[in-house]
Write a structure and sequence with these properties.
Layout lengths: L7 H24 L13 H28 L2 H33 L7 H19 L6 H28 L17 H60 L1
Helix pairs in contact: 1-6, 2-3, 2-5, 2-6, 3-4, 3-6, 4-5
């Protein structure tokens, strides 16, 4: 059994993520110009929006993995769904923190009960519940099936978060990227560079977290088989003793 989560592929991916992240930070903090109204506060956009991209991607993988697990019961999809949710929850935390820091100079407060902020917080809490469910002391199949159902249901709130700025009025601005985007030049390039960097980091983290979860499962299987073998040996010993008596 391979006892490491590293491989040549992950090292290449990690190097690419590191180089891209350094370049994204350089462009986001130094080369990209300040925005007319928000000035340097707009630089938080290069963290905020890439965090959304990683969170959405992770929750989408959780959705697909959960559905496929319910279909065929494969441990691969169950572990992938859980690993993706963990990564996505971390980046959702980045999203909420950067949003609060951005909101202070833009709105004058760190927090408003805005539809986008509120639905994002609910999404964060729901997926924390999903991760908590995966830690419950239940039979593995029962726990995985319940988590898969919750993973599918929770994705409904991802859709609500995405369209909340269109469905309800609030302080949060509309979609930044789209056919009518106002970003151009270095700002647009810096944003796409940040998106690439965060997605590479998210992919690197996902691979390692999945491999770690797979190793943990293999250890559980080995321990279970050893315990079963010891129990059978004990039963066999009692049986031999009973026959002798």
């Amino acid at each position: 059994m391979n006892n490491t989560t590293s491989s040549r592929g992950t090292r290449i991916l990690g190097s690419a993520a590191l180089v891209t992240m350094v370049a994204a930070l350089a462009f986001g903090l130094l080369f990209s110009p300040p925005e007319v109204d928000q000035q340097d506060a707009v630089r938080l956009m290069y963290i905020h929006l890439p965090s959304i991209a990683v969170a959405y991607s992770g929750f989408a993988i959780t959705l697909v993995g959960s559905a496929l697990y319910l279909r065929n019961g494969s441990a691969f999809w169950d572990l992938l769904a859980g690993a993706a949710a963990e990564i996505a929850v971390v980046f959702t935390a980045f999203l909420l923190i950067s949003g609060a820091l951005w909101g202070k100079p833009t709105w004058g407060v760190y927090w408003q009960w805005d539809p986008r902020l509120t639905s994002t917080t609910v999404m964060f809490i729901m997926y924390l519940g999903y991760l908590a469910l995966r830690r419950l002391e239940l039979p593995r199949e029962v726990r995985s099936r319940r988590a898969a159902v919750l993973g599918i249901i929770s994705f409904v709130n991802v859709i609500i978060v995405h369209y909340s700025v269109q469905w309800w009025r609030g302080l949060h601005q509309g979609q930044t990227l789209g056919v009518d985007t106002k970003l151009d030049g270095l700002m647009l390039f810096s944003l796409f560079l940040g998106l690439a960097a965060f997605l590479l980091v998210g992919a690197w983290l996902l691979i390692h977290r999945f491999r770690l979860a797979w190793l943990e499962r293999q250890v559980e299987v080995i321990h279970f088989e050893q315990a079963l073998a010891e129990r059978r040996a004990e039963d066999s010993g009692f049986g031999s003793l009973g026959g002798a008596l």
